[in-house]
Structure formats: structure tokens, C-alpha cells
Amino acid sequence: MTPLPPHTVRESARAKHVHLRFSLRGGLEVVVPPGFDRREIPDLLQAKARWIARAEREMAAQRRLLDPAPPDALPRAIALRALGETWAIDARPDGRRRPTLREADGPRLVVAGPVADPATWRP
């Protein structure tokens, strides 16, 4: 028996059947209905091994498109690949406690406020 892939199990009152889901951040999730015998999960994962391997490859390809880590400073621009656009970022520090964001002329965003503090603008 091959080792099981890393996964989480979530019970859902809405689930009628077992579902396997992948997400970029969460990885493989097994969604089970209430009362499902969790001892069946290893056999289920073995039966779906080919699907899981394909989904893992697709997720890995998508992860490569993401930035590896959030920046510690506001970027000078944001590339919107799906739209084929690049928007300039204009950082304007001021005394506000929270950052504000507005669209300016051209493909440009103005971020004002505590622009030097990533904890305020990163979310």
C-alpha cells in the first residue's frame, strides 16, 4: 500500500456523499457526510490515486504562477495577467491609521495611509 497523500478531513452536514476537493492553499480536502466511517478514507484515497496525482500536478502548476511570498513593501506595479494589464502603484504615506485605495488616471492605483506597514495593507 502506497503512503497516503497529505489531506484534511471535514465533516459537512450538507454532504450526502464523500467529495475530494483541492485548493491552492489548503491542498487535498476530504469532505464527508455526518456518520461516515473515517476508517474508509485510506481505501477511498487509494482508489482515487490517479485523480489525486493529476489534481496535485495541476495545483503545482498554478502555484508556480503565484508569488512565493507576500512582499514586505508595496509593489511599484501589479500585473493583471488575465486582463493583460499592468497597473502602477503610487504609495502616499500620511497620518491615517488604515490605508485607502483609489483608482487614478491611467492604469494606476493610489494607496494612501500607513504604506510602510505591511500588516495594514497586505490583507
Strand and helix map with partners:
Blueprint lengths: L6 E5 L7 E5 L3 E6 L8 H7 L1 H17 L11 E4 L4 E9 L6 E5 L3 E6 L4 H4 L2
What does this structure look like?
With 123 residues, this protein is an alpha/beta fold. 23% of the residues lie in helices and 33% in strands. The strands form 2 sheets. Strands 4-5-7-6 form a 4-stranded mixed beta sheet, with no helix packed on it. It is elongated and about 60 Å long. The two termini are 42 Å apart.
- Output mean pLDDT: 89
| Molecular shape | elongated
Helix content: 10-25%
Radius of gyration: 21 Å
Count of DSSP E strands?
Answer: 7
Largest sheet: 4 strands, mixed
**Total of DSSP H or I helical runs spanning 4+ residues:** 3
Structural class: alpha/beta
- Report how far apart the termini are: 42 Å
Low-confidence stretches: none
Beta-strand content estimate: 25-35%
What order do the strands of the largest sheet run in, or round the barrel if closed?
Answer: 4-5-7-6
Order of helices and strands: EEEHHEEEEH
Brief overview, please?
This protein has 123 residues and is of the alpha/beta class. The chain contains 3 helices and 7 strands, in the order βββααββββα.
List keywords for this structure.
four-stranded mixed beta sheet; elongated; 23% helix; 3 helices; 123 residues; alpha/beta
